[in-house]
Q: What sequence folds into this?
């Protein structure tokens, strides 16, 4: 039997949970959240690799409406963030509308009925609106390396960690040196007998200014809510005032570059290794990483940084282009995610039956205000195109979008609109403006390849301006930019 809900939310990470809470607060109680995993948390549920932690301070990387006086450190480890999301979900009183272990298989817009017909792994639904919080960093990207599936030992992606595999004393290889890998490598170096780290491009890594909060601070967080707000505000403006400014002006990045080079010099004395880890592109072009432990781990005797190209994987090891085979017991691939080619986009079919995946494959990822797409009525995507950040908290962006979406839904209810979608012109203007602002930034002119760029070299993932500008742009639903249909028949 098909069940109807007013709003179907996909995903129970930071985005889906915020959508559920704000829909509920706005009086929209007829919604369901479907989540293919077994719990809330999204990326924080999935990324359980050793060393997983946030590289944005927790006071900022949390909901503004749910401060957490219990953060133990400035940069929280994954279990604390996951526990925080679980607590917020529990206390929100919305969990009875979450369905875990339910995957979206296909969603199709039905023009005559003006609703979404949604097929899931646990039955069929119809919904007036479809809100996707499926996340841009949720589908692991496996490397296309010859022979990798024939490796005889354990192989796993960083976001699918197999804690059942004992790595003590083992010969382990890690492919990749991105944000995930640089957190994993120091932890693996503590237990592995030998560790090979395969680097294709050196990352810029600055020190991690982390510390445990003192007992006095923690007491104050509990009893002086203003102190937490002060920390949050200071962290926010510290990042907002400096980091976006240097995306177009290389000279402003000099202090960050100096910090990163000092980080290398402090930990690594071998000139050959220093040269290998020193990037040859502008800092900020790829995500700037933070770690005090990565370079010391690479400098250890039982760790080898391999910079020769990987030619293939055999059942027993990894062979580089020079013909050397390094034998291993376990292979960890920390090779990132499907960001500009998200598989879920191929399951969402708008007007005329064309999928979002097809639409974006033709023209590149694009959405009005990163949220709504022409041809996909009543569809809202949290963390859509050009909403990602390289420098600040995604939770801030998520809250901005959720406010916009709930305002859109309130407008639909108030004005009895059956359906709305951004006009093609409004979407194009917004996308053109974002892309113009990308020109000359460190992402397009910084001399690196990264997951920020799509196959045409366009940055369709990041927001190129201050986050408060995005907050302002999404502060109120702007119906004038939309094609609307209504009023509803009911
Ligand atoms: O993935 P990545 P990630 N052969 O795509 C290499 C967030 N995050 O999981 O640079 C060899 O950044 C690839 O090499 P290259 C954060 O937004 C946040 O590390 O393309 N190597 C690169 O080194 C982050 O940006 C936290 O040349 C191959 C690596 O694999 C995003 O997640 C923590 C290869 C992939 O790096 C993704 O980070 C962790 C191949 N075939 C992650 N294919 C926080 O703390 C790829 N590589 C909040």
A:
């Amino acid at each position: 039997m098909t069940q109807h809900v007013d709003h179907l939310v996909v995903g129970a990470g930071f985005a889906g949970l915020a959508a559920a809470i704000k829909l509920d607060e706005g009086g929209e109680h007829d919604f369901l959240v479907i989540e293919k995993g077994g719990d809330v948390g999204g990326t924080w549920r999935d990324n359980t690799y050793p060393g997983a932690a946030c590289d944005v301070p927790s006071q900022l990387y949390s909901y503004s409406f749910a401060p957490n006086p219990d953060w133990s450190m400035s940069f929280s480890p994954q279990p604390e963030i996951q526990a925080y999301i679980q607590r917020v979900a529990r206390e929100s009183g919305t969990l009875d509308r979450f369905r875990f272990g339910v995957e979206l298989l296909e969603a199709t817009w039905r023009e005559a009925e003006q609703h979404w017909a949604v097929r899931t792994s646990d039955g069929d639904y119809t919904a007036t609106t479809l809100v996707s919080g499926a996340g841009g960093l949720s589908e692991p990207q496996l490397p296309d390396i010859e022979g990798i599936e024939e490796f005889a030992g354990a192989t796993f992606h960083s976001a699918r960690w197999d804690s059942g595999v004992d790595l003590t004393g083992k010969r382990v290889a890690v492919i990749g040196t991105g944000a995930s890998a640089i957190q994993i490598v120091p932890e693996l170096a503590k237990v592995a007998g030998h560790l090979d780290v395969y680097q294709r491009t050196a990352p810029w890594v600055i020190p991690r200014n982390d510390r445990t909060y003192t007992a006095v601070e923690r007491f104050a967080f509990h009893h002086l809510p203003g102190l937490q707000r002060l920390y949050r505000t200071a962290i926010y403006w510290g990042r907002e005032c400096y980091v976006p400014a240097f995306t177009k002006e290389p000279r402003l990045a000099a202090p960050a570059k100096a910090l990163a080079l000092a980080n290398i010099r402090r930990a690594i004395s071998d000139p050959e290794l220093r040269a290998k880890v020193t990037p040859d592109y502008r800092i900020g072009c790829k995500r700037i990483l933070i770690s005090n432990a990565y370079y010391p781990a690479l400098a250890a005797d039982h760790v080898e940084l391999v910079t020769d190209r990987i030619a293939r994987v055999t059942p027993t090891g990894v062979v580089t282009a020079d013909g050397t085979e390094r034998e291993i017991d376990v292979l960890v691939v920390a090779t990132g995610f499907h960001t500009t080619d998200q598989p879920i986009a191929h399951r969402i079919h708008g007007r005329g039956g064309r999928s979002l995946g097809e639409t974006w494959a033709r023209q590149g990822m694009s959405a009005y205000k990163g949220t709504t797409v022409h041809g996909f009525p009543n569809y809202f995507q949290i963390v859509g195109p050009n909403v990602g950040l390289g420098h600040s908290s995604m939770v801030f962006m998520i809250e901005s979008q959720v406010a916009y979406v709930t305002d859109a839904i309130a407008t639909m209810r108030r004005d009895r609109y059956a359906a709305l979608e951004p006009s093609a012109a409004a979407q194009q203007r917004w996308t053109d403006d974002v892309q113009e602002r990308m020109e000359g930034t460190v992402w397009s002119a910084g001399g690196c390849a990264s997951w920020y760029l799509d196959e045409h070299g366009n940055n369709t993932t990041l927001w190129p301006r201050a986050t408060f500008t995005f907050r302002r742009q999404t502060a109120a639903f702007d119906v004038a930019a939309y094609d609307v249909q209504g009023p509803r028949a009911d």
Q: What stands out?
A: The chain has a mean pLDDT of 96. The radius of gyration is 23 Å. The pocket of 3-acetylpyridine adenine dinucleotide is lined by residues 53-55, 137, 143, 145, 158, 175-181, 198, 200-201, 287, 310, 334-337, 449, 451 (CB under 6 Å). The first strand starts at residue 3 and ends at 10.
